[in-house]
Amino acid sequence: MPAPDDIRRWSDALATDPASLVYADLADALRRQGDLDAAEHIARRGIDRNPGHAPGLVVLARIAEDRGDLVTASEWWERARAAETRGVPSPAPVRRTSGGVRAAVRRPTPAAPLRAVAHGAAHSTAHGAGRTPTFVASFSGSRPEIVRSLVADADGLLLASPTASDDLGVLEAMAAAVAGVGDDATRAATHLGLGAWRAIVLETSADTLAVAPASDGALTVLSVARHVPLGRSRALLRLAATRAAADGF
Amino acid sequence: MRFADCVDELLAAPGVLAALVVSRRDGIVVEGNGHVGVDTDAVAALAASLYTRAAAAADASDGGVPGFLHLEAEAGRLCIVPRGDLLLVTVAEPFANLGLLRLAMRRLIGRLAD
Q: The whole model's pTM is what?
């Protein structure tokens, strides 16, 4: 939760210089306090002045999420990702751990606010990564309808998961099992003339498995609670895929 | 309900290009029909393979009994519902109403053995 002093300081800075980029910090602080209308007003005004400012776009995405408007949130996330791609000349370096979990190490550059500003205090990631990727930060704990979420590579290895408290063995088993699903989906869609596939949703008696393609044959995978309507599961998948893409997956 | 009646009813739905009853184990068409240009044998084989894989992945996640599967692609949809060793499969245009199709397939698969 932001300190009142921070909000006052950012408000003063914005009053002194309406073009200041602290609008993103201020809007995110107001959002986390639950004042979504004020947060959106400030964020939109900031974006009007700075259309390509990724941290402001991220705050707008999170405001839309807080309102439950996942479609609009996806659009803002997409714009944020595009803005970050334009604004950050080189991607974060990537290292692999022995468990096949990819962890990106973000340099402390001015571009880092795309993750840092949007999510406030740093979330700890499930597997010890040194940054807070958007996929990891946004699907950890705050969405009880999501049982598990992960990104798996084309070889069936776990790339990332925000579900820190979950059993790593289950996540790795899911990653391994789902790799063949992507291959089969590609084969079916290609052979049947359906074009590129976008999503697979499988309802089960326990929950709903939702899978979307990511880059380089990787897959974004969600396990959504059974009581969640199919349409919402699909919307959550789109959002997760957008977030994973923002993380470079 | 006869397999052929089930297939005919699904094919009458807007946007449905093919409807089949497929053997889940070997991906062979038990009963099926489709618009010109749709290779129903390929649909059956690919649908059975995809469903088996997806069900295995779901099993790794939650161990639940798999039900309706929807593959969404740029130019169409593939929908699958299981019953025992059978799969009811449809291929549909992107504009086909997924909600209606899902309900119809679940209703019809339940009546197949009647």
A: 0.66
